[in-house]
Amino acid sequence: MALRKILSDNHPVLRTRAQEVKNINNVVCRLIDDMIETMHDSEGVGLAANQVGVPKRILVASDCQEDAKVYELINPRCEEVEGEEVGVEGCLSVPGQYGQVPRYQKIIVSALNRKGEKVRLRLEGLPARILLHEMDHLDGILFTDKAVRMLDPDEMKSEEES
Ligand code: ZN
Which of 120, 136, 152, 157 is deepest in the core (most CB within 10 A)? Predict the structure, then answer.
């Protein structure tokens, strides 16, 4: 496994719609391993492949539970959505900035795993928010595009302390 460089500052690949994965091979599996290592190294909770310069529809995300399982999703697609809530988000590709972003509260996502098997996830709250944030990356969308309000650094400080 190896760390990959996380792209930021509106790098063009962050604004590119990522392509479907047609062939799940060793290159894809190695990329997923590297993305997980890179996400953990950066203390992030999710990472999309185009954030490390690969415009393919692949994401990894923490399940936010104590066992800290990582979802590995290839060609993810939102099948059902329900509700909406606003929450604070940041992004490894937008360092130091945080904003309040409305997201669906509950989602059902289908995708392929690294064995090429179809998986279906029913998520709500924070894990749903993380997946929606990462799926937006795959469409070239950043959370700053959807934020209803960006926080100023002092506000974020008090948020972290509380
Ligand atoms: Zn992000």
Answer: 136
Of 79, 134, 159, 161, the catalytic one is 134
Residue 149: strand, helix, or coil: strand
Residue 158 is predicted with a pLDDT of 63
Domains delineated in the chain: 12-161 (3.90.45.10)
82 in active site = no
Tally of CB atoms within 10 A around 59: 29
Nearest to 1 by CA among 48, 35, 44: 35
User: For the segment 111-159, what is each residue's pLDDT rounded down to a tens digit?
Assistant: 999 999 999 999 999 999 999 999 999 999 999 999 999 998 777 766 6
Residue in the block written with tokens 């959370």: 143
Q: Which residues pair with 88 in a beta bridge?
A: 100
The answer to whether the CB of 96 falls within 8 A of the CB of 106 is no
